[in-house]
Amino acid sequence: MSLYIEERNWAGLESNFRQIAESISEKEYAAKIAEVDLSNYQKALCAQLSLIIKKALNLDAKAVYFEYDLDNDWQSHFFVCQEYNPPAIGDDEWACDWVDELKGEDLRSFGDLYLPGFDSTESQKGANLYLIARTISTFGRCCEKFQDNNFAICMAFHDQDPVMRIYEP
User: Fold this and answer.
1) 104: helix, coil or strand?
2) Cβ neighbours of 74 (radius 10 Å)
3) In angstroms, rounded to a whole number, what is the distance separating the alpha carbons of residues 85 and 27?
């Protein structure tokens, strides 16, 4: 996924992981994931991101971090972080030390499609990675107008390591 993220190729990310889901999961299940309309979710995320960006600018933050929970209907939060480490450091504990937060949007339809066990089977892996790819793409599209700020914009699902860097200063 990282190559697609670095290139900001959101359509390519979704397309590639749909193909993976279709090849190792059921095609019908991948189609169900593809059918979920994310336009309202994206509008809500973009609005929330705009609010948290304003907070980050006021606090002279080094990062904005978005986290969603696979096991709880994609419940999410945005966090403003005073500290930040680039990926080369290998320590993402900065994301746990935040100074402000904002409740994010839930995505119950993805929560309903998520296959518990994450990647215990190939079928789970394919379907769940496609859900994650669509989430990243949706968030990435929201971030495009904020890429010129002097702080990182990152995201991860709960307990993910490492954190994904959508934009870095």
Assistant:
1) coil
2) 23
3) 39
Domain boundaries, the chain: 2-167
In the three-class reduction of DSSP (H, G, I as helix; E, B as strand; rest coil), residue 160 is classed as: coil
Ramachandran quadrant class, 159 (left: phi over 0; alpha: psi -120 to 50; beta: rest): left
Per-residue pLDDT in tens (0 to 9) along the chain, 169 residues = 999 999 999 999 999 999 999 999 989 999 999 999 999 999 999 999 999 999 999 999 999 999 999 999 999 999 999 999 999 999 999 999 999 999 999 999 999 999 998 889 999 999 999 999 999 999 999 999 887 788 999 999 999 999 999 999 8
Which uninterrupted H or E stretch holds 68? Answer: strand 63-69
DSSP reduced 3-state for 100: strand
Q: Output DSSP code: residue 118.
A: T
Which residues are CB-neighbours of 71 under 8 A, at least 6 positions away? 114, 116, 158
